[in-house]
Design brief:
CATH class of one domain: Alpha Beta
CATH superfamily of one domain: 2-enoyl-CoA Hydratase, Chain A, domain 1
Helix content: 40-55%
CATH architecture of one domain: Alpha-Beta Complex
Strand content: 15-25%
Oligomer: single chain
Number of strands: 9
CATH topology of one domain: 2-enoyl-CoA Hydratase, Chain A, domain 1
Number of helices: 10
Length: 250
């Protein structure tokens, strides 16, 4: 798998890494490989918890709309849903940015470890677009309805320390401690009885896959509707040109 790697850390922790540095933009093929990695680790008898990391400067900048404007979102979300259905607990190690769908990917994990330089943003509204990747479900689950409304309507960036205060991440450490801390969290989970961990996690997440599936159907429909808008074209241009967008409502 060229875009996703798997390695073993200690006795019972598997590290899965995104391998498209520096930004780790994803597409359907990459999310498929990631889901395959989760399922491969879950099918064996040694891995009890996963650390999701990434090579390069940023954890994940989501979908590159400038180069993947024609991406089949429904197909992408079919693969993304497999991440939510996978049975092993996941700790995301978030360095740099988790932006757009990358924020959604981070929130698909059970826990998130970030650094003081990390930043999270569900920036869809700043692109003239509708949010996706199940954020309709996962973001309120993590930070609550009011904070979710703020983050989704403004698209603002949240730094590591503020993300911890909001609940977007569970630990904030210096960059050199990121993987050690994430692996430590996963290893602590792996010390518990593996069948009990899977059963408890399944109980706590009961109905999540169904709710995320329904949310993704709606998100995909709204994204398709807004994809042809002038504001979306302006948002993508402004992002590429690193300037504030000028939206007209068209």
């Amino acid at each position: 798998m060229s875009d996703v790697s798997i390695e073993r850390e200690g006795e019972h922790v598997g590290i899965v890494r995104l391998c498209r540095p520096p930004n780790n933009f994803f597409d359907t093929a990459m999310i498929m490989q990631l889901a395959d990695a989760y399922e491969e680790l879950a099918s064996g008898d040694w891995c009890r918890a996963i650390v999701l990391g990434a090579e390069g400067k940023h954890f994940c900048a989501g979908l590159d709309f400038g180069h993947n404007a024609g991406q089949d979102i429904e197909a992408l979300y079919d693969q993304a849903l497999r991440l939510f259905a996978a049975p092993l607990p996941v700790v995301a190690a978030v360095q740099g940015a988790a932006i757009g769908g990358g924020c959604g990917l981070a929130l698909s994990a059970d826990f998130r470890v970030a650094t003081t330089a990390s930043r999270f943003s569900a920036n869809f509204a700043r692109l003239g677009f509708h949010h996706g990747f199940g954020l309709s479900v996962t973001l309120p689950n993590v930070v609550g309805q009011q904070a979710s409304t703020d983050l989704l309507l403004t698209g603002r960036r949240v730094g590591g320390k503020d993300a911890k205060d909001l609940g977007l991440c569970d630990d904030v450490v210096e960059a050199e401690q990121l993987m050690t801390t994430a692996v430590g969290r996963a290893a602590a989970i792996a010390e518990s009885a593996p069948r009990a961990v899977r059963a408890i996690r399944a109980t706590l997440r009961e109905g999540l896959v169904e709710r995320v599936r329904a949310a993704m159907v709606h998100e995909s429909e709204e994204q398709d509707r807004l994809r042809t808008s002038a504001d979306f074209a302006e948002g993508v241009r402004a992002s590429a040109e690193r300037r504030p967008p000028h939206f007209t409502g068209a």
